Amino acid sequence: MISAVLPRPYQNYVYAYPHKTAYRPLPERPALSRVWAGEPRSALSLYLHIPFCEVRCGFCNLFTRVGAPDELTTRYLDALTRQAGAVRDGLGDAEPVRFATAAFGGGTPTYLDADELTRLCDIAENVMGADLRAIPLSVEASPPTATSDRLAVLAERGATRLSLGVQSFVEAEARAAVRPQRRADVEAALGRIRATAIPVLNIDLIYGIDGQTAASWRVSLDAALAWRPEEIYLYPLYVRPLTGLARHADPAVAEQEWDSERLARYAEGRDHLMANGYEQVSMRMFRRADAPPQGPDDYACQTDGMIGLGCGARSYTRTLHYSFDYAVDMRAVRGIIDTYVATTDFGSALHGRVIDGDEAARRHLLQSLLQAQGLAVADYRTRFGTDPWDDFGPELHALADRGWLADTDAETLRLSERGLAYSDAIGPDFFSPAVRAAMAAYELR
Ligand code: SF4
């Protein structure tokens, strides 16, 4: 049976569970040596967060600020060095510490100039002990900051993936998304990236921009495809286009129309990429089928055992997720960065959430189910000793009733084509009551 009433398709992008709005101050402020005691450390992920951008894109809800006055980047790198030293001390030397992946994210890591990027790599290598040239290293960049000197540093230090936030090749759409840019500048940045020795190029595009049509969306898709990037991400816009809303007296009608437009653009994008030799990895991610394998897939660093450095980065052990304070409002973000650069003692975890067995199971299920290849039931049983249908029967039956689960053997739980399109409506159903309550009680600032 397929239910006629569908939930709204764009509710919550679950890029990490639990969301930071479910974190709270940790009253006992545990020392990092205690937090990491007994944790596996043979294949950690390292993530360095740079919270600076040249402009604030209209669609952005990430932890970042515009500009960095008064040598703030220098002070930020000084603080990163102190934090890295404290974390490395917390990990101790009783067992070897090995990093399996590394990533620089933001913000815009390439907001840093070439010398500062060298410093950033030095922190990863010399303080944390990551062998950047031997492991996958992913870096995010914007077109104006993807300059030849910065790219040369990154390539020389071992970057294997460069992700460029293009969003749209159509100049009017870039303006509508509050990220004005000239197409010629974007193409020049792509040329510079392809001229370096960084093997994987990812291009981010956004659909649902005010004024975007099927034809103009195709222009961006084809412009991206012309570079044969190894990966393409298609993101739905989440910030409502105000002019679109203004066309209607009834906001509910406007929302429905926008949902249908985004669903249509998604399907067009997916079909066009798949017709051009790409495989779907998730609702957002597409990989060129003939791209050389690049080792671990998880560039988003959501696996257990992650060290996040920087004031917007999270760290994960098996039983605790932690970070610094969180905000999206500009003034609050600036205050958190100012506090971070003034911090001398980084030896404790301050904000976070304890991850018990139930939350770990929800996280595992969400992160597997929202991937096109789905959840291997045997893996789930091995890790949690139970069956996902016993743990999440009502939620999974609701997906099946809507036709969102593919017909597979009993050993794989996979979303159908329709289910993948509704990925952002699926996540919240699997949040625990406690996480839901914490997110609802969080006062956004
Ligand atoms: S470049 Fe990225 S992080 Fe910076 S404002 Fe734009 S979307 Fe946000």
From TrEMBL:
InterPro entries: Coproporphyrinogen-III_oxidase, Elp3/MiaA/NifB-like_rSAM, HemN_C, rSAM, rSAM_sf. GO terms for molecular function: 4 iron, 4 sulfur cluster binding; catalytic activity. Gene3D superfamilies: 3.30.750.200. It comes from the Bacteria. SMART domains: Elp3. PROSITE patterns: RADICAL_SAM. Pfam families: HemN_C (PF06969), Radical_SAM (PF04055). Coiled coil: none annotated. Residues 38-279 form the Radical SAM core domain. GO terms for cellular component: cytoplasm. GO terms for biological process: porphyrin-containing compound biosynthetic process. PANTHER family: COPROPORPHYRINIGEN III OXIDASE (PTHR13932), RADICAL S-ADENOSYL METHIONINE DOMAIN-CONTAINING PROTEIN 1, MITOCHONDRIAL (PTHR13932:SF5). NCBIfam families: PRK08208.1. This is Heme chaperone HemW. It comes from Nocardia neocaledoniensis.
